[in-house]
Design goal:
Blueprint lengths: L8 E5 L3 H13 L4 E5 L4 H7 L5 E3 L2 H5 L4 E4 L3 H14 L5 E4 L5 H10 L5 E3 L1 E3 L20 E5 L7 H12 L3 E5 L1 H29 L12 H6 L7 H9 L2 H20 L5 H15 L5
Helix pairs in contact: 4-5, 7-10
Length: 288
């Protein structure tokens, strides 16, 4: 059963992978929605040419003005810098939400600018690819993925309820939490895997000699493990800067686990580690 169109005009601030995918998902569900894309470097024009958005602009105020929903898909630093201008240009009934990978820092910044009128809702879709850019945008990107929302599901604001319904409609699973808990959790299940992939790439690179070994013997297992190593630093810089303590703690826990494995290589206790890992793997649900 189709849901009612909750927003008539949506501003997509940052028309890369996430912003572009959100726009495509909205277009698929609600063809009548007006979509305006904003970027500082002109990627919004590429998004318009590709049919991802209806309008393109490099002026933030122009994009935000008149929008019922403002979707911030910029890097964390740029998102924080833009909050003041977004709050100033947003209508009193607008909902402003972000897709940043850390929530505590931007949440505190938003409190300084949104004090009535337009509502700010922190969000983080746990979806993505190692490739960036609107050319990799996909309307199906959010299907089966958790979508963290900062607050309570019982929030009486109809704008918040409408966005949660949109998240479900695009195939995501809304999970309500608070910024600090979110940042601790993603430090373990998202940021740590990224750092592990980078560290593994360094080991393989350093061990590969002039004959090409051991890299020339690599099979699909290494390829799977290094998928995240293809992610650009420009995307991860702000994430790591705004979640340093949680990522550092996660790396410490990993170091402890690696030390235990090293001391257990010739012991039967290692079987228990494999069994526990097998069970955890079974609990993970792949997006459908």
């Amino acid at each position: 059963m189709p849901i009612t169109v909750p927003f008539r005009r949506v501003a997509i601030l940052g028309t890369g992978l996430i912003g572009g995918s959100f726009a495509l998902a909205l277009r698929e569900l609600f063809p009548e929605i007006d979509l305006v894309g904003y970027s500082r470097a002109g990627s919004s024009e590429r998004a318009r040419a590709a049919g991802v958005v209806d309008e393109a602009t490099t002026d933030l105020a122009t994009a935000v003005r008149g929008a019922d929903l403002v979707y911030i898909a910029l890097p964390i630093g740029a998102s924080i810098e833009a909050l003041g201008a977004i709050a100033k240009s947003s209508g009193p009934n607008a909902l402003v939400t972000d897709a940043c990978s850390t929530k505590a820092v931007i949440g505190r910044a938003a409190q300084e600018h949104f004090r009535g009128g337009a509502r700010f809702l922190g969000g983080h879709p746990m979806a993505g690819k190692e490739q960036s850019g609107v050319e990799h945008a996909d309307a199906k990107l959010f299907r089966g993925a958790p979508y963290a929302l900062m607050g309570l599901e019982s929030d009486s604001d109809s704008r918040v309820a409408a966005f949660a319904e949109i998240a479900r409609a695009i195939g995501a699973r809304p999970i309500w939490t608070d910024p600090e808990t979110h940042d601790w959790a993603v430090g373990i299940v998202s940021h740590l895997p990224q750092m592990v992939s980078i560290a593994l790439a360094r080991v393989v690179q350093d061990e590969t000699d002039e004959t090409g070994l051991p890299l020339s013997l690599a099979g699909p297992g290494l390829h799977d493990m290094l998928r995240l190593a293809g992610s650009p630093y420009d995307i991860w810089r702000d994430i790591l800067l705004t979640n340093t303590d949680n990522v550092s703690r996660a790396l410490d826990r990993l170091a402890q686990a690696v030390d235990y494995l090293r001391t257990s290589l010739a012991r039967k206790e290692l079987q228990q580690e494999f069994q526990a890992a097998n069970e955890l793997y079974k609990q993970l649900k792949k997006p459908t």
